[in-house]
Each structure stands twice: as structure tokens, then as C-alpha cells.
Amino acid sequence: MAGLLADTTYKSFEEVAKRFPDKTALIFLGEKYTFSELHSMVVRLAAGLYESGVGKGERVIVYLYNLPQTIIAWLALQRLEAVPVMVAPVYTAYDIRYMANDVGAEVIFCMDTNLSYVVDVLNESPIRKIIFTNMVDLLPVWKRYFGKGFGRIPMGKIPKGKDFISFRELLKKGSTASLPPFRGKPEETAVMLYTGGTTGFPKGVPLSAGLFLYRIDEWAKAAEAVVPLGEGISLLSAPLYHVIGQMDGMTPLLITGEPLIVMPRVVLDAMFNHIQRYKVTRMFAVPAMYRMILEHDRIDYYDLSSLKYCGTGGDVLPTEVANRWYKKFDIPLYQGYGATELCAAISLSYARDGIPPEGAAGKISPGSKFRLVDPDTLEPVPAGEPGELLATSPYAVNAYWNKPEETEKCFINVDGEIWYRTKDVVEIDQNNWLYFRDRSVDLIKHKGYRIAAAEVERVLQEHPAVIAASVVGIADEKVGERIKAFVVLKEDIKGISGFELTKWCKERLAPYKVPQYIEFRDMLPKSKVGKFLRRELREEERRKVSE
Length: 547
Description:
Elements: H1 9-19, E1 24-28, E2 31-34, H2 35-51, E3 59-63, H3 68-79, E4 83-86, H4 93-103, E5 107-111, H5 115-120, E6 129-133, H6 141-149, E7 164-166, H7 167-173, E8 189-195, E9 203-208, H8 209-223, E10 234-236, H9 243-256, E11 260-262, H10 268-278, E12 282-285, H11 287-295, E13 309-312, H12 319-329, E14 333-335, E15 337-339, E16 344-348, E17 360-364, E18 369-373, E19 387-392, H13 404-410, E20 411-414, E21 417-428, E22 433-438, E23 443-446, E24 449-452, H14 453-461, E25 466-476, E26 480-489, H15 498-506, E27 517-520, H16 534-546
Parallel strand pairs: 1-11, 3-4, 3-5, 5-6, 6-7, 10-11, 10-12, 12-13, 13-14, 26-27
Antiparallel strand pairs: 1-2, 8-9, 15-16, 16-17, 17-22, 18-19, 19-21, 20-21, 21-22, 23-24, 25-26
Helix pairs in contact: 1-2, 1-3, 1-9, 2-3, 2-7, 8-9
């Protein structure tokens, strides 16, 4: 791997920090942090965590927005050979309770604004220590003062007690001399991300250091022909709890030694301003984001000509969006295909190959292996025909965390190797270009997120008035798919509205998982063995559109 300097995530960061101590590593709300400053904060936080009892193999929840603190926490946990469990900061107590118990997390990083959800589950989870922060913790005093004074910073109330400690306090607490030697190995878990489960419960995906480094090395190489390594500047538009955010956020810090612009939330005008101000050369976003950029009524007020590589993934790129982007900016959108279980992209559009063929979702990355099989028999399909994609690679994921039944469904042993079943039907041509043809029917793609229909159904069916629910995705050109729920109420229940069920879901699901439409039915289609037939509901919705 040409860009790699070490075989573990922390050592790779340490080597980059040694090579470029005075180079800018992070830019956040106008403040710049050099690699040496970032490295100093990482080891100090690691020391504070170590003296608080965090050690090798411990799973620690990181429940934060895209902040320098999120990256510092991630890297500090790498230094301790602990495992950051990345969690969406918009998750509710319902999700935090489940995940904390699932991974046995005793420590959690959270915002002061979502801390109340953590407090709600303290008596029902193993969490024993809460490290809280806010949007401006690492900014200069005068910026914090003015931000708070003018009410521009969301703030939450902090309970008192020894179990609550601020991020800033923990940075000052530890002695770096107390840190144990680093003995990490590439096969050990570096980070855990959650993805949708067919049973309705999210599944933890443990990503090894070796796999993570292999993927970010290819991520860097994809743009190398138009952005030479070390000469670019990246803007992070994807959340760090998503695998795209992990790739895009860690590539500059662990591989290329380039500045990374971090924004707590994506606001398009602010994004445009940062691209123009800092001459951003590369970014990666879901197709829906590029559509929003193209349709923004102030896009022409900004100079975005510094962009050289704009990658996209997480959903199918509409041809219309790709064509509009190329026409406006004279650069293509470089599409990739992957999954959390594959540690992001198994295929990428490399700039060295020129403009990707229409509809292509990248070329299979060197080092990755694939098979196309019949979904029912798992027998290879004839050359040139579509089939379900099976994939593996160095240090591949071979099991979900604590989910043997889900693991058995999604990972199979072929000729002594563990392969992941993507459940997606694709074609791959003689030049290894991948063309997506159909998605797993039980996963809904909304704004780049993969949402398990079963998870939304489970939450709906927990409502005392609901006897049955089926959830499907409805095609929408702006967001990929919208979520629609079909609900059957108990016979003696009256007066329950879609508004009430939506409110119920909002209290238990992340915002992007809440159904946009709820339709009440007397009954739902079932198979002979009593299984709800989502495909019939999907067909009904397709027919409505075609009519």
C-alpha cells in the first residue's frame, strides 16, 4: 500500500504527525490545529482515559457531532487499543440503551445537548462514566464567550457527580508518562459501526485496523491523479458515525497528511463558503447532497472551482444529477459502491481512469475479491450476467458483534474464505466496472442511509394500539426512497392517528428512520407461512406511480 506508513491506525497517524508537525490537520469554525497540536491532545486524552480505567479492547460509545473532539476521541481510543463505537448524535435514549447493552459500554462521549438521553438509561445500561462536550469546547475563550453571549451555541444542563466529566477537564487530567506501550495489531478491531438488521435490531460491525487502512489507502488513491497525495484539502460532509464519514475523515489524518475541514452540521452556504475560502480540492457526499447543491438558489454566488474530485456513494447516482454536475462544474461525480460490512467501498471511480462510464459505480479496488452468484442457489452466474455480489478482502469482517443468527445469514464460507453477502444484484464488466442493478428489498435507502424495514416495523408494533405493520421504501428522486408504513390497528382501538404513530416513532428512532407516510389497513398481505409480503406493498406503490 503505497500511502501507508504503518500497519495500525494509531501508528499511521503518529507517523503522519511526525512527518508534518507544523502542517494544518484540522480546520473547525475558523480555527486551525496543526498535526503536532492534534497529536498532543490525542495523547493527553488517552492518558486521561487510561487513568479513568479505559483499557485495551474496551468498547466506548462516541455519541458526538462532527467535531475536533470526535476525531481526538477516536484517535485516543486507538492509542489505548480500545474500540470507538460510533453512534449518531440524534439517536434517542431508546437507541443508546440498546447499543450500550449490546457492546457492554461503560464509558460514553456525548454532547451536552444529548446528555439527557444518556442520563435516562444509566439505570438500564452498564454506562458508568459520561464525558461531555459542546460545539465550542476547543475554541478560544473569546469565541466561546461571544458565541454563548449571543445565543449562537446550543447548550445543555450538566448534572453534578463524579460520573460526569468534561472533555476539557479530561484533557488536563492524565499524565502521558502513565500510558502503556502500544502493541496494536492489524487484525484487531479499530472501530465499530452500526448498520440495519433484518431482525429489526441494528448490528455492530467490527472493522479491523488492517481492513480500515486498506480502504482509506484506496480512498486516497482514487483522487491521486487530480489531487496529488499531500497537496489537497478535504471537506468532511458525511457524519463520522457513517462509514463514508470514517473514510473521508480519516484518510487525510492517517494517510495523506492533508488539512481536513470539519463542520458540526452541513449547512450549504457555510459549505460553499469553506470551499471558496480554503480552496477545497476534494469531498465525498451522497447523491442527494449533490442534488441539493445543484438546486441551491445561491450556488452561483460562490467560487467552487477549486474542487477536483467529488466522490459519491451510499445510494445510486441518478444520471440526471451526474450530467448536471459535469455540465456546471466541468468535473465528473466519481461514484463508488460498498457497505459498512465491507468497510465502505469495494469499488471506486479512480480519477486516473478518466470519466467513468455512464451508470458505473466504480471499479473493483485492487486487493478486493468478488463473486457474482444466483441469490437462491449461490452458484456462479454466467460471465456478463447480473448476480448477487459476494465480496471479501484483506482483514475482512467475518461476523457481526453478538449476532450469530444475523452472521449466519450474511457471511458464508466459500473455499475456506469468509465472504459477505451484499444481497445486491450487480453486473461487473470485463474491465471490472461495477453496475448496480437492484438492491436488497428489505433495506430502504434514504439520503444515503441504509434503514432496515424490520427496525421501523418493530418500533411501530410496540405501540399498544398496533397489531401489525409493514414498512417499505418508495422511490423518490431527491432522497432515494421515502419510508412508508402500512399499519393494522387492534379491533377495539379507535381514534389513533398517523400523527400519534409518527410521534411515537420520533421518540424511539433516529429522525431519518421515521416514516414519512403512514397508511392504515384492515389487513396486510401474507405468505402461506404467515410472513408479511413487503414486495406486494412495494408493487402496489410502483403501480400507483406508473398509473
